[in-house]
Model the fold of this input.
Amino acid sequence: MRNKEHYKKIGFMCGLEIHQRLATERKLFCACSASMQEHAPVGRIERRQRAVAGELGAVDVSTAFESARKRRFYYNIFRESSCLVDTDEEPPHGVNMEAVGIAMRIASSLDARIPYEIEPMRKEVVDGSDPSAFQRSMMVGYDGSIEVSGRRIPIPSIFLEEESSGIESSSKDEVVYNLDRLGIPLIEIDTDPVIETPEEAKEVARRIGLILRLSGKVQRGIGSIRQDVNVSIGKGSRVEIKGFQELGSMDEIIENEVERQEKLVAIREVLLRRHARVGTPIDVTGVFEGTGARIIKEKLAEGGIVVAVKLSGFGGLVGTEISKGLRLGTEISDYAKSAGVKGIIHSDENLSGSYGIASEEAEWIVRDLGVGPDDAFILIADEKERCYRAIALAVRRAELALEGVPQETRGIDQRLHVTRFLRPIPGGSRMYPETDAVPIGAAEAMEGVMMERIDPSKIMKNLEKELKNAQLSEQMLWSSSLQLYNQILARTGADPVVVAATLLEKFREMKRDGIQVERIGDDAIMKVFELYSSGRITKAAIETIMRRIPSDAYEVESAVRELSLERIGKAELKKIISEFRKAGVKDIKREVMTKYRLNVDGRELDDIIG
Amino acid sequence: MYGGKAGKALLDIGIRVGDRIKVTSGEGSFEGVLMPKPDSGEKDAIVIKLKNGYNIGIKFTEDMKIMKVGSAESFSFPRSSMKFGKGLPKIGLVYTGGTIGSKIDYMTGGVHMLTKPEELLYEVGELTEIAEVHVDDLMSVASEDISHVEWAMIAKAVADAFEEGARGVVITHGTDTMHYTSAALSFMLSDLQGPVVLTGAQRSSDRGSSDAFMNLICAASLAARSEIAEVGIAMHMDTSDKYCGFIRGTKARKMHTSARDAFRPINNRFIARIGYSGNIEYLDGYKKAGKGARTKATVKFEPRIAMVKTYPNSDPGILDYHIGKGVKGIIIEGTGLGHAPVSTKHKEYNWMDAMKRAVDAGCLLGITSQCINGRVNGSVYRNARIIADAGAVYCEDMLTEVAYVKLGFLLAHHRKEEAARLLRVNMAGEITDRTETGGVDGAFDAQ
Done:
């Protein structure tokens, strides 16, 4: 097990970028709804984007990479939650001051300073996720910090920006995006890369997440908060891991990433000792004439070709495991795949067993390429143009092995808890002023805005007062339901203990029973407590309704009707009791509860029976 | 750029916009590039571009420490070089300015007009496979600043391009008044040898998402390969980057302030649809070049004309104003079928007498409709008959803007009576004798 000392020794550096969608009524630069509640798009448009040369005539590496993929972009349009601003057909409207206010309060709660004047910027985006090819962003705080387990972690900057479009589907040729998500206000909080261990990274993320939630103005649910982690070790280089959605496995994933980087550094040392180098791709289609290797046979039948490249000095290393289930070969394959091929075949694999490549075929290639005992080779079979694009990317990745750890943006394999290549890390994004939006004077923006510091200990004290239970309060403080809990109390005046117990304990039990509690609508939950608080249902009925997973208030009402959950009022209860008495029932309480368990308030019953 | 005390302080230390500076004040210490002051925002803010790319506005104070740490780096666009494929058709590209020819200054975010149109071609490499493009860097003017003087220059440039062997001509133009220019060229150019295609962009070409690329590719494809011998506009057919529609120059109108598919054919169909890859489908009839056609530019224009609009409570005195200025003709954009308030009992709103005074003063009146779609008619309602009797010309299904341009063209070449006759005779597709069923959005247009 690695300890703090080990991480220090290997030069571990780690910083976080936390992105959280804000819960505002409207989007950041237009009047569209920011709630993403529409289910079906009303139309779809097609757009193309191209790499445009920068001021120095250079195109950024990740721009060029995306351009090489030549994908088409489609955008789903929504009636209430997308408009011409989203489709890049109308200049932005004025900035959403509600969002600016929330962002400023969060920034100052993270001890950041707020600029005298906030300047809206455009940040170039190349993956098509924004039809305008840029994202609007502004710095709303600087020089902040947060204390985590007694250590101050600097937060150099805090940004308020537009959320990107959600991906509906994606393939090698096209991506379909949903515009309902585009432009929702998003706050980004960056820490300095001073985090010392994977555990600390998780702790810092948890703490920042807490402050965000306690603002009471953030969206809940899957994807509403995303953590990116930058990780490097002394002999490696910066790798950006994107898409942590839950913190549970964050430390484990970072540990695995560190291991991967260490292994890549070790491989590099062997490669340098062997004077390794990467050859030039050669067309070896002829070798596979009449082949029995299924994958190759299929591609050839479609008119494809087979290309091979020799990796001198790579023998045995391509198949070396570098992270759980990942080999150097996987990395090379992931690069090739971004050109649209299924993958690569390499010589550290069992060629005949796994692919049905005959030993004479393998020998031909060994002879053709001049592969020696310390060497390896890779093969790609596909349609010609795609094949050459893929092999060029594979060659690039193999060459990068000589440098150790490539700078990459990587995603997460949720099953293995390891990272996988997504794309090269973008150079500093090109940024320029959003001249269609006016700068924001912070002093004026703060007028009338609730700027009270978000203080977890103060909120904890309030919770303890409300719930009179330290454990439940602690759970509620850290729960993503806190915001909803507060809204329920404010709107319905329901008993805090009942609300908290339902949202935390009851929901947990229901989850264990396989009920998808996350699909219960906030609107429905609110309605249930409204009915409870106004005496129309009993406490016991709450769970019964929730177990039906209502998505809105209407479904709650119909559940009450269909299941006859209306509470029996005092007068009627008295009548029932007196009828039972007349009938000579002995244990009246038991009898009533058996018959009307969900409709009768137990305490009320006790009062009447006396 | 910076005024007041901040401007003076910066000047005193010899700091210019673009210089790298370090500023220390109560707000903290910042190092970065001094940016131009935005037109709006806090008056005393100094704007610096930080290392992370973001700009920040810092309050200028007397005790602020400002230091220059580096000088402005010079800024230039990439050099362009174009090699065209062999044996491609030759086309002319007349560059006049507008959004399609503007580029962002990444430092200030401001948009500049390109000084070299080749820079635009540089971004659209596909052109080298479509045609051998000969660029005529005619002018760099925003379309709202274009007048009949520029129309004449463009018309001559087009005729010159044909003279020099082009088989078609593309004109890049700002979008705001592109339909005025297309109308003017439709009248000024006669005996056309090939297609004259105006195109532009709603989003500047420095953006990866710009509509300029497809518009230019489609326009060039049409100029290089189509047999159409008419002036028209090729811009996005709908919001997708999929097809451009080619609209007759006298039947086009900008119908949206900002959308990509702003240009629509009015009382007409799209003549052709051009795909991103340059394939052309014809959707309606068009004129082909006559044998031995030789494009001629007749550029005289009578600018002493006007365009006015009637509306509830409108003051007919506007006609007297124009008569006083000596205008030779006025297009009145009336309501409905071409009506104006000529029977109202409120004397101050009755246009009848003013219209008579205009006709008596030798002014040619033309009537169009605010409905945009449809045809005017001077004989259905009494009010219209009164107007027609007074000598006003009903302009059929002509767009107001086109009627205006045609009026200026006619009055420059003909006496009033002949101009009045020709105003309602089709010359360049501006008048059709039948209007197809299909609603106002061309609901039945082939898509």
